[in-house]
Each structure stands twice: as structure tokens, then as C-alpha cells.
Write a structure and sequence with these properties.
The chain has 162 residues and is an alpha/beta fold. The strands form two sheets. A five-stranded mixed beta sheet has the order 1-2-5-4-3. Strands 6-7 form a two-stranded parallel sheet. Helix 3 links the parallel strand 6 and strand 7. The relative contact order is 0.14.
């Protein structure tokens, strides 16, 4: 039996939902990036769903295993309904960009920055998209599968040494 979450998502965003499935009570929807902000707003504000907690936002690099190469993955939780849903958004290597959801969940600000820093996924409309874990001079995005393990990075000195 299909969950209320997946049913409502498919009804409201039938053009954007690519596929859905459930496993052991956890729902997953793969959606097109074009409506991601509206989909997230719907999940959060629809009274029957109330996914008010953005638990995590990350990316996956499928280099050579799947096309499109990247996927941004959102994990939401409804405190009211004690339900989880995972939203996956495929992104091509040529244009790894997606709209920011930081206007809906303030924690997305930090999570999107981490995703940018590690994977190079650009979040359109993000208020402060800059590195969060690595220094600004760092070259590349180390969680990409094609990042060279032995790459030498520029030395970053404290400001007192410049």
C-alpha cells in the first residue's frame, strides 16, 4: 500500500516525480530539480504531511556507474507523524546546480555549503555559498570520485604570516 506522502507528492507534482518506492516504512521519491523548492515547501507546509525537520542534505557521485552523475539527497522527518521521506534529485555533471532550500530550513544553509565544499554542487539563491570545511584556496571537491587522492594543495598560512 502506498504511503500518504508518496500519493500526495505524485498527485501534486505528477510532472516532476520520476519514481517512488518504499522500503520498511521509509519512503523515497526521485524528482526533477525544477520544482525542488516547491516540493520541499509542500512537504513542510501540507498539514497532513508536516515534514518540519530537515535531518540531512548530501550528495552522491555515481561516476561511471549511473547517469546523471550526481544526486542531491534530502532526508526529512515529520515530528507530528513520526514519518521519514527521502527526496533524491539527479543532477548532470555538466550542470550540477539546484535551487537552495535555505529559505525553508535555516539548517540548509550549512548543509548546502558542505555539499558545495565536498561535491561542487552549486545551490542557486544560497545566501552565502562558500567553503565550510576546507580553506578557500583548496582546489577541487574531495568527495568527488575523480578527485586525485595524491593531489597537492596550496599551502594556506594564517593571516599573521602573510
Amino acid at each position: 500500500m502506498e504511503s500518504i506522502t508518496l500519493k500526495k507528492l505524485k498527485e501534486r507534482f505528477f510532472d516532476s516525480v520520476i519514481e517512488t518506492h518504499s522500503f520498511r516504512g521509509d519512503d523515497t521519491a526521485v524528482v526533477k530539480r525544477v520544482d525542488i523548492v516547491e516540493i520541499c515547501r509542500f512537504l513542510k507546509e501540507m498539514p497532513e504531511l508536516s515534514y518540519n525537520f530537515l535531518m540531512d542534505l548530501t550528495a552522491v557521485d555515481y561516476l561511471g556507474k549511473k547517469e546523471p552523475r550526481f544526486e542531491v539527497v534530502y532526508h526529512f522527518y515529520s515530528l507530528k507523524n513520526k514519518q521519514r521521506v527521502r527526496i533524491k534529485v539527479p543532477l548532470p555533471e555538466a550542470d550540477p546546480t539546484i535551487d537552495s532550500v535555505s529559505s525553508l530550513w535555516s539548517v540548509a544553509n550549512w548543509l548546502e555549503r558542505e555539499c558545495w565544499d565536498m561535491f561542487g554542487i552549486r545551490f542557486n539563491g544560497h545566501p552565502d555559498l562558500r567553503r565550510i570545511l576546507l580553506y578557500e584556496e583548496f582546489q577541487g571537491h574531495p568527495l568527488r570520485k575523480d578527485y586525485p587522492v595524491d593531489k597537492r594543495q596550496p599551502l594556506a598560512l594564517p593571516e599573521s604570516h602573510t
